[in-house]
């Protein structure tokens, strides 16, 4: 193949130099990935490795950076963060949702709807203890909280810009999902503070998918979602909204003292909803091998699905291969295996109750565009809570509706619904999408992402 394109060594060198200039990042960059095992040939560069986030070099965060497929120099930089707290932006975000590849069998296949068609994508495993990120002082895994996470993420980016100086001034967006409803606004707020001293972050907007923004509104919308989708009975719905609601249960749970009433309500809820329904998408089939992963019962002959519901298992297998880790410049420090969500991180769950919708309000007031979007099949952080929170915020800030609640289109089908306030605060649903919207509705999510980057309302017609 390559001999067809390059007839002589001199020509190869010329092509190399051309690429060097057009990409901006040197091909001999120490973080550059030469080739991932089983990876199809691609026209863009990707990079990964560690960036230290403290002076003593105890703490290092791992990133995977994928340049845009075409014309990376003119495309924005997007930082992507998954939630948890404690889940991996590389395993979940890059390899299951919107990255360029999906693990399949022994190798990787291309994701046609990868977000690097529109942007340079930076996936960060954060905080320490998540994925390949580590601290050599394991005591620092205890009591990690929102404040520490935001500060470490800020320091990460500052230091990352030293390694990738050509991205310093690039339009920057931060996008995240789930508990990143805490990480993203908090990091954005720190950036604006930092910019007052030194204008480093060219922040152009944030987007939050099925985000945790306000404890009570987000967690208590679950009951109605279960009930309206037929997952629980009328009687159980009544108990789940009067006897013990979900926010009370969660609070009791992380305080280590679940009351007998909450325990009995939750056990009824779990029995009726069944573990064979994916709470992150009540319409999607579950990956049987994941459900039974403890007992190792496999069902290899599942009905073929267009969405590979077992992608998480494939990712775990792939990222635990030694050849893959070595190609990624990754190492396991203090853990035996790479896991999608951390087993060593001890996050302070009291921070769940910090309302970040107020931080979103501050960002909007500072002129930063915000998009809150919801995969509408998710029962974990349902669209109803997010929609109410955005609407209330707009009201508080006295912002008028600039795009009335309406459908938006992807090709000739309805991709979801949207509403925009004051041309700066947007809400959108993604129809038929899970908690991880780009995983289950990749094409619709890409339309949403493109509109967000361009600062345009979602397509009104087809
Ligand atoms: C960043 O942009 C500003 C204004 O557009 C310019 O003055 C500055 O030189 C740029 N810095 C870098 C490192 O390119
Ligand atoms: C949930 O329960 C708590 C504690 O019982 C209560 O204070 C709160 O108002 C309830 N929230 C909703 C939305 O029902
Ligand atoms: C919002 O709409 C009202 C009524 O049309 C108008 O009086 C007000 O000026 C608008 N506010 C803004 C911020 O545009």
From TrEMBL:
PROSITE patterns for this protein: CARBOXYPEPT_SER_HIS, CARBOXYPEPT_SER_SER
Gene3D superfamilies noted in UniProt: 3.40.50.11320, 6.10.250.940, alpha/beta hydrolase
GO cellular component, one term: vacuole
Broadest EC class assigned to this enzyme: hydrolase
Compartment list: Secreted
Broad class of the protein's primary localization: secreted
Protein name: Carboxypeptidase
Organism: Cicer arietinum (Chickpea)
Gene symbol of the encoding locus: LOC101511515
């Amino acid at each position: 193949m390559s001999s067809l394109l390059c007839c002589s060594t001199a020509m190869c060198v010329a092509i190399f130099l051309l690429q060097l200039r057009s990409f901006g990042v040197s091909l001999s960059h120490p973080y550059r990935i030469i080739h991932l095992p089983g990876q199809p040939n691609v026209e863009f560069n990707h990079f990964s490795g560690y960036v230290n986030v403290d002076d003593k070099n105890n703490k290092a965060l791992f990133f995977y950076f994928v340049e845009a497929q075409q014309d990376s120099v003119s495309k924005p930089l997007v930082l992507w963060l998954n939630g948890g707290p404690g889940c991996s932006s590389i395993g979940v975000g890059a390899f299951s949702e919107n990255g360029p590849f999906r693990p399949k069998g022994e190798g990787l296949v291309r994701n046609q709807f990868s977000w690097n068609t529109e942007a340079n994508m930076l996936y960060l495993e954060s905080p320490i203890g998540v994925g390949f990120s580590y601290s050599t002082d394991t005591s620092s895994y205890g009591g990690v909280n929102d404040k520490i996470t935001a500060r470490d993420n800020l320091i990460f980016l500052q230091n990352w810009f030293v390694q990738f100086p050509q991205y310093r001034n690039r339009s920057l967006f931060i996008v995240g999902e789930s508990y990143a409803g805490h990480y993203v606004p908090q990091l954005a707020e720190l950036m604006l503070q930092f910019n007052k001293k030194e204008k480093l972050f060219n922040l152009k907007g944030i987007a939050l998918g099925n985000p945790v923004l306000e404890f009570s509104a987000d967690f208590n919308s679950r009951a109605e979602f279960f009930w309206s989708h037929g997952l629980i009975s009328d009687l159980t719905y009544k108990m789940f909204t009067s006897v013990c609601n979900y926010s009370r249960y969660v609070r009791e749970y992380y305080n280590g003292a679940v009351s007998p009433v909450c325990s009995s309500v939750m056990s009824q809820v779990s029995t009726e909803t069944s573990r064979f329904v994916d709470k992150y998408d009540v319409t999607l089939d579950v990956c049987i091998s994941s459900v039974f992963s403890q007992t190792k019962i496999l069902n290899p002959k599942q009905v073929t699905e267009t969405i590979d519901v077992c992608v998480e298992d494939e990712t775990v297998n792939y990222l635990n291969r030694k050849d893959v880790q070595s190609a990624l410049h990754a190492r396991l420090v203090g853990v035996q295996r790479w896991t999608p969500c951390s087993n060593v991180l001890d996050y302070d769950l009291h921070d769940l109750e910090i309302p970040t919708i107020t931080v979103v309000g501050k960002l909007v007031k500072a002129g930063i565009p915000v998009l809150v979007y919801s995969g509408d099949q998710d029962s974990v952080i349902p669209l109803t809570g997010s929609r109410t929170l955005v609407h209330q915020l707009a009201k508080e800030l006295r912002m008028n509706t600039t795009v009335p609640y309406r459908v938006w289109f992807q090709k000739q089908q309805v991709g979801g619904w949207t509403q925009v306030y004051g041309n700066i605060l947007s809400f959108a649903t993604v129809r038929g999408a899970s908690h991880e919207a780009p995983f289950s509705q990749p094409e619709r999510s890409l339309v949403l992402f493109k509109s967000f980057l361009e600062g345009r309302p979602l397509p009104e017609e087809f």
